[in-house]
Specification:
5-stranded antiparallel sheet, 2 helices, elongated
Length: about 120
């Protein structure tokens, strides 16, 4: 999807993105714990292969929903998303990373995360 977002549109979506990111963070932590316990103990109180597959499906469901809406997923550890936009005639990405309270950053599309600037 080649959707462009305004700053206001992206900010309006952010509470939902933050909630969804919480699901990813929880699933990510459970997956790490299961993997560690299975490797060190041979089993995990959180489950086995079925639980791993369910957690992976939960993450993929969230990521797929974002992609369908035109939100670009750049990472899951930490969760990092970009909203394609145009500011002052320049192609940019409005950028949010896990832990930030709001949408306050952007970067030129051709520069990526290293080129982040405050909105």
């Amino acid at each position: 999807m080649n959707r462009l977002f305004t700053v206001d549109e992206a900010r309006a979506l952010l509470p939902e993105i933050i909630d969804d990111a919480g699901l990813i963070v929880a699933a990510r932590a459970d997956l790490a714990e299961i993997a560690h316990d299975r490797q060190t103990l041979g089993h995990s109180a959180l489950g086995g292969i079925p639980e791993i597959k369910a957690l992976e499906a939960r993450i993929e469901d969230v990521l797929g929903g974002w992609a369908e809406r035109g939100i670009e997923v750049k990472g899951v550890a930490p969760v990092l998303v970009d909203f394609p936009a145009v500011l002052d005639g320049v192609s940019v990405r409005l950028c949010w990373i896990e832990g930030e309270p709001g949408l306050a950053w952007y970067h030129r599309t051709d520069l990526g995360f290293a080129g982040r600037r405050p909105l």
